[in-house]
Structures are given as structure tokens and as C-alpha cells.
Amino acid sequence: MSYSSNEPEIYRRAATYVEKILKGTKPSDIPVEQPTKFELVINLKAAKQIGLTILPNVLVRADRGIK
Fold first, then answer.
1. Residue 29 to residue 39: CA distance in whole angstroms
2. Which of 2, 22, 44, 62 shows the greatest Cβ crowding within 10 Å of its Cβ?
3. What is the pLDDT along the chain (67 residues), one digit of tens a residue?
4. Which three-class secondary structure state does DSSP give residue 60?
5. Neighbours of 42 (CB within 10 A)
6. How high does pLDDT run on average in the chain?
7. DSSP 2-51
8. Distance between CA 62 and CA 38 in Å, rounded?
């Protein structure tokens, strides 16, 4: 299982920072932002190999499952 920030969203936000800097904004004037979108990924294949049963209510909450 992995619970982390959504990588494509982080790259989009980084592009916004680059745009602001290229338009002349000083990096020190740009506020620091925290990720706002997170995803839960469950590796079902690995769970099966180690004999771990993932409960259905956890599977429903997962954004992605690796089979």
C-alpha cells in the first residue's frame, strides 16, 4: 500500500512556479504550497504473495489497485 501525493498534480504545480518565475516574479515572493490531492494505491499481487487479505472497504477507498 502506498498513500502519497498525486505526481501529475505536483508536476502541474511545478509548471505554475516556472511560469511565474519566467514572468519575472521573484522566487522568494512565491508562497510555498502543500499537495492537496493524494492517492491510495494497493498492490494486490504483492498482498496475495505474502498472504495478506485486503478488506473490501479498504479496496473501495483505493484510487488504484495493481493486479
1. 30
2. 62
3. 999 998 888 999 999 999 999 999 999 999 998 888 899 999 999 999 999 999 999 999 999 988 8
4. helix
5. 21
6. 92
7. EEEE-HHHHHHHHHHHHHHHHTT--GGGSPP-----EEEEEEHHHHHHTT
8. 11
Which amino acid would we find at residue 16?
T
Three-state secondary-structure class, residue 62: coil
Give the CA distances from residue 32 to residues 13, 16, 27, 28, 35, in Å, rounded to whole numbers and listed in that order: 11, 12, 10, 9, 10
C-alpha cell read off for 24? 519575472
